[in-house]
Amino acid sequence: MRQAGQSEWKGITIMSEINSQLALAPVHAPTAPEGQSLEEKRAAVLALDLDGAVVVATIREHLRRRSGKPWSLSGGRGTAYGWIRIHAPPARRVAPFDYMAEEDRAELGRLLGLTGPVHQQGESIPTGNDYRRVYLARAMFGEDLGFTASPYWD
After folding, report:
1. Which residues have CB under 8 Å from 6's CB, separation 6+?
2. 70-115 pLDDT tens trace
3. Residue 40: what are its φ and ψ, rounded to 5°?
4. How many other β-carbons are positioned within 10 Å of the β-carbon of residue 42?
5. Which of 20-24, 56-60, 90-94, 117-121 shows the lowest mean pLDDT across its residues?
6. Single pTM value for the model
7. pLDDT value of position 73
8. Strand pairing of 123-125 and 84-87?
9. Per-residue b/e over 101-133, b at no fewer than 16 CB within 10 Å?
10. What's the DSSP call for residue 98?
11. Helix (H) or strand (E) holding 87
C-alpha cells in the first residue's frame, strides 16, 4: 500500500531517494598530496565508488580543484546510457555550434593527461568500470596510473 508522498513504483522511490542523497551529500574525494607513491594513488582510485553519479561528482570536483574552473559533466541517455561526457559549461562554449573554445580543449586535455586537446564537443567516457577508473585517475592525478580499458563493443 502506498503512503503519502511515496511514488507508485518502488524503483522510482528508491532512485529519488538516492538522487536526493547524492545532491545533498558533499563529495569526499581524496586529495592528491605531492609525494604520494604510485601504489598510494592507485589505492585511492580503487577505493572509490564506481556508481555513475558518484563518478560524475568526483571527476567534476577534482577537475575544479586542479584547474580552478567549473567543468560540465553529463550522463548519457538513450543509446548512450552510462556514458559520461566532460565539456566546458555553456557560458564558456563557442557559438554557433556550442563547441568548446580552443583554450578549454587544450586545458581539459592537459588536466586529463592526454597527448593533445580534447574533441571540440568534449571528452566522452564509455560506460564500464575500467573506463571509469582510468578517468578517475586522470581527473585526480593527471595520468592514468597504469589503469587500462578496452572497448567491450565490436
Report:
1. 13
2. 999 999 888 899 999 999 999 999 989 999 999 999 999 999 999 9
3. -70, -40
4. 17
5. 20-24
6. 0.77
7. 97
8. antiparallel
9. eeebbebbbbbbeeeebbebebbbbbbbeebbb
10. T
11. strand 84-87
101: left (phi over 0), alpha (psi -120 to 50) or beta: beta
Q: Check residue 72 and report its DSSP letter.
A: E
**How many angstroms separate the CA atoms of 21 and 154, rounded?**
37
Amino acid found at 53: A
**Which residues pair with residue 122 across a beta bridge?**
119
| Pair 139, 123: CB distance under 8 Å | no
Sign of the alpha-carbon torsion through 118, 124, 129, 132: positive
Residue 118 amino acid letter: V
pLDDT reported for residue 32: 52
